[in-house]
Amino acid sequence: MHLGLIGGIGPAATVAYYQRLTARLREMGHALDLTIVNADAGTLVRNNRTDARQAQAEIYAELIGRLKAAGADCAAITSLGGHFCYAETEAISPLPLISAVAPLDVYFVAQGLGTLGLLGTDVVMRTQLYGQLTRTTAVAPQENREEIGRAYIDMALRGHCTDDDRTLFFEAGRRMVADQGAEAIILAGTDLNLAFDGHDPGYKVIDALDVHVALLADLAAGRITLDAAMKGSS
């Protein structure tokens, strides 16, 4: 299976997808067949903030057309924030789309988790992952959600995490665990690995990027069908 990725949103997440897909396929004994196209992060941020779903979907569709021309069999968006226009994109996509949100419910239920705390863009947190978690409950920071969302976007665009950013994210997660009953914190922004990788915040953390990568790797290796992957199930 030839995977197509829409990258660039942000660059650190694109690198993480590539590294983790390569490593996982190597462990499986399979070569990775992959093409990546670059979306402009600044344009996506503007469209996200203004809820310009159709405009961003049309940008994605053009990029997915390039992936199809390169021989890709399916496409995926390497940004949970970038999923704000997923339905609009799916309707005009030249290739089947593999959602990064759909597999999360399946994974959380399998792990025995019922309440999850969200960190990511303001839209992701405010809409509780666009209301697409149907089998589990999501909570978001209550006091400074917009500040956290701005800090996340700034970090993603510059490609590195400051100490102040890390403190902000870690404390937000701690409060969701202590005050809102979160059993784990979802890194629902694909650039949050910049803050959390190599650090122990003192609570359970699940990187949504890893869940998506696992699904894409199983698809690439032929362990699951395209139909199953599109439903988020392995």
TrEMBL record:
Gene3D superfamilies: 3.40.50.1860
Domain of life, per lineage: Bacteria
Protein name, as recorded: Aspartate/glutamate racemase family protein
